[in-house]
Amino acid sequence: KLIALLAGDGIGPEVTGEARRVLDALALDLAFEEAEVGGAAYRAHGHPLPPETVALAQRADAVLFGAVGDPAFDALDRALRPEQAILGLRKALSTFANLRPARGFPGLEEASTLKPEIARAIDLVIVRELNGDVYFGDKGRRTTDAGLREGHDLMRYDEAEVRRIAHVGFRTARTRSGRLCSVDKANVLETSQLWRDVVIEVAADYADVELTHMYVDNAAMQLVRNPAAFDTIVTGNLFGDILSDQASMCVGSIGMLPSASLDADGKGLYEPIHGSAPDIAGQGKANPCAAILSAAMMLRHSLGEAAAADRIEAAVATAIRGGMRTPDLGGTATTRAMGDAVLAAL
Amino acid sequence: KLIALLAGDGIGPEVTGEARRVLDALALDLAFEEAEVGGAAYRAHGHPLPPETVALAQRADAVLFGAVGDPAFDALDRALRPEQAILGLRKALSTFANLRPARGFPGLEEASTLKPEIARAIDLVIVRELNGDVYFGDKGRRTTDAGLREGHDLMRYDEAEVRRIAHVGFRTARTRSGRLCSVDKANVLETSQLWRDVVIEVAADYADVELTHMYVDNAAMQLVRNPAAFDTIVTGNLFGDILSDQASMCVGSIGMLPSASLDADGKGLYEPIHGSAPDIAGQGKANPCAAILSAAMMLRHSLGEAAAADRIEAAVATAIRGGMRTPDLGGTATTRAMGDAVLAAL
Ligand SMILES: CC(C)[C@H](C(=O)O)[C@@H](O)C(=O)O
Ligand SMILES: CC(C)[C@H](C(=O)O)[C@@H](O)C(=O)O
Q1: Fewest C-beta in 10 Å: which of B78, B161, B172, B247?
Q2: Where does the chain bind substrate (chains A, B) (predicted)?
């Protein structure tokens, strides 16, 4: 199996480096090919997502992604900024289903600003649509008839887009508690009304799943008030972006959380939910666990290696239980030391 | 001075009733006129925002608003649903600047799910644009050429809309700590890039205010990680909707928080940030403090009665210090009992 390793910017190379070491140690039949992406690719090729990188990602059986984003390019046009690389990849790979689990790690509850008994009870997954919404609708700048500068972005979904992500939501809920909460803003948005209609239609196929609906502002509130009440959340691209970052911070350990972005055939792109953290890049301070756990998700969802995935997840839990703490977790362990601890526990 | 009293649905009448009693007790020269709005108006007139209600609101010096929303009308077309009343009023009154303060109340930190020392330190205000964005852009449903149902909502801002809310943000920051954080999603949205450009231009008039920019997903994260780091936040309609609900729940006492929606001349609509809470309507369980504090904001911002506003706010603080607790605060006091306690402390 071929893995495209796209390390990207900032701490991306450090954390994917540790994930690679863990994968190598498992002695599975994996080949790795690297390519540049983000600011690194812009420096080398004048574009954050060069065609060779897209070609490799499409050819590979799965993509292991680090992070993109570099303040050195803040002044560039949006289309050339490092972040465009991840948006372009999601679209080129048709990875429309983004799974973002947020679960407390035993022993890490103190890292959360939530009371420990609240943080400890969090165990949810956000299923975020990743190929549509206001991210990919018609967008631009123009001057109005009155001579004013204007910016616009079209939010839109069609029923096919909603249906396929709704199915992922229901199937995910079924493997968990059987409760699915669909988040929208149907009291204001037509897009959300279509979303809600279609989710209700799809529900007919899943009589065993209990479906509820919540407005996004209320969801942001309930994620603080009673996060344990959520199990599976399905929502659009924009709301999912906001709520998943919020949920991960409620858990208290953003450096621990992986994500999977899947296409219709189970091929996927795997990345930590944290960003490129340019302020600590290259200093060995980054927590590689999110990248290592993303590699585990890759083994499970795209490579049919569930047992190996379990081993990695257990090894990370052991390292944490053993007291290993990178700075984001209040400790002083280096990126490499955390990687070593996971390797030792494999 | 004429106050339009729009009590609305659910707990709206109960909580505005207590606010009215407090205002009456101050013996200011205020006249009140009531009108129906939301589900109540739909029942009486077949529309959630009848023309007489709009006319009264426009004629009045200020509007004291309760809440709208009634699940009995969930099946209605969006344009006829109770929530349309508040959207329509905001537009009819050109109240483009929504101020949502979120500050812990001494003695109420335990109500928050955040650790007490985190909740106690929260003291921020969100300045939310209220007349534009994806709320009011072109929206609709159609069938695509491929025969698929589609929904769309246009997100848009022009520079004049951004400029006037940016000025409110800077002026607000100036009366506080002098720190303004502008929240957008400029790495994805053209609307946000225009927003950021214009906010930076306006900053030239406020050399004494320190301006920072943050992406909305990061802001949702930082509101959990370190809410005390925020002072004044300025953002668009949709992001402000989500972040202000989240921030208020971080404080832990959504039943305590008021809001003001102001036009260019200081005329305004004042409402609790909580909703109509149909599940507890008519049972005397609602906390009237948010409505009472909204009345105080009205006195300060629209009626030139700052001293009276101070008196109300002090009286609410006294009632809370005295141990008065409605069910949302973990107690059993009735709506009326809380109102009585505030009146007694005036
Ligand atoms: C980098 C950015 C474009 C991206 C997004 O908004 O999707 C990020 O926030 C994420 O959630 O993966
Ligand atoms: C009721 C709804 C339309 C409204 C909004 O989204 O603005 C509410 O959530 C609010 O924040 O006042």
Answers
A1: B78
A2: 90, 100, 128, 217
How far is the centre of ligand 1, averaged over its atoms, from the C-alpha of A274 (Å)?
Answer: 10
CATH architecture of B109-252: 3-Layer(aba) Sandwich (3.40)
Tell me the residue ranges of DSSP E strands in B216-276.
232-235, 258-262, 268-272
Q: Any idea which residue has 């795209």 for tokens?
A: A302
CATH number attached to the domain at A1-108+256-346: 3.40.718.10
Distance from the CA of A167 to the center of ligand 2, in angstroms? 29
- Indicate the Cα dihedral angle B10, B14, B16, B17, nearest 10°: 150
Residue B271 Cβ < 6 Å to ligand 2: no
Q: Please name the residues between 5 and 24 in chain A that touch chain B, using a CB distance below 8 Å.
A: none
Class level of CATH domain A117-252: alpha beta
Assess if CATH 3.40.50.10490 describes domain B1-95+256-346: no
How many angstroms separate the CA atoms of A239 and A217, rounded? 10
Q: Mean pLDDT of successive 10-residue segments in chain A (346 residues)?
A: 96 98 96 95 93 96 95 83 92 97 84 89 96 96 96 98 98 96 96 97 98 96 94 98 93 89 95 93 96 97 96 96 92 97 97
pTM of the model: 0.95
Residue nearest to atom 3 of ligand 1 (CA): A83
Q: Look at B193 and A78 and tell me if their CB atoms are within 8 Å.
A: yes
Residue B257 near ligand 2, beta carbon < 6 Å: no
